[in-house]
């Protein structure tokens, strides 16, 4: 840290003995040691608080990134598409005026035609209709 050699230390010790005196020199060295310890403790505390602030800011950034990943997670989009594949097809069929992006025109027309067929009411079966021989055999 400081570039002090042995000769400089010897010179400082001689000056301290002359200025302070041999009787008060141990007390002065103790006070200097106490002040040095206080300064080191204050520097350590400052370093800890600075590191803690840095960790908190990094944690906030990580939390934000995790939230962004949860919102824009492509895996959850794929999972939803796999678990509800018919929902997407049903929505596309019910809204033929909004064709799916990237589909050829003939496929869009087929989807519109399928939607029109689906919109027609289903024929009602009545109990009075004659059943076919195959249906009779199946009933027995």
Oligomer: single chain
**Helix/strand order, N-terminal first:** HHHHHH
Tell the overall outline.
rod-shaped
Main sheet overview? none
Strand count: 0
* Secondary-structure content class: mainly alpha
The amount of beta strand, in percent, is: under 5%
Q: Extract low-pLDDT stretches.
A: none
Mean pLDDT: 75
Question: What share of residues is helical?
Answer: over 70%
Distance from N terminus to C terminus (CA atoms, Å) equals 104 Å
What's the structural domain tally? 2
Rg from alpha-carbon coordinates? 43 Å
Total helices: the number is 6
Write a structural description.
The structure is a single chain. The chain is built from six helices and no strands. It is an all-alpha fold.
What's this model, at a glance?
The protein is mostly helical and 140 residues long. Helix content is 74%, strand content 0%.
Q: What descriptors fit this protein?
A:
2 domains, 140 residues, rod-shaped, mainly alpha, 0% strand, single chain, 74% helix
Question: Could you outline the blueprint of secondary structure elements for this entry?
Answer:
Blueprint: H1 6-20, H2 25-71, H3 74-83, H4 85-94, H5 105-119, H6 133-139
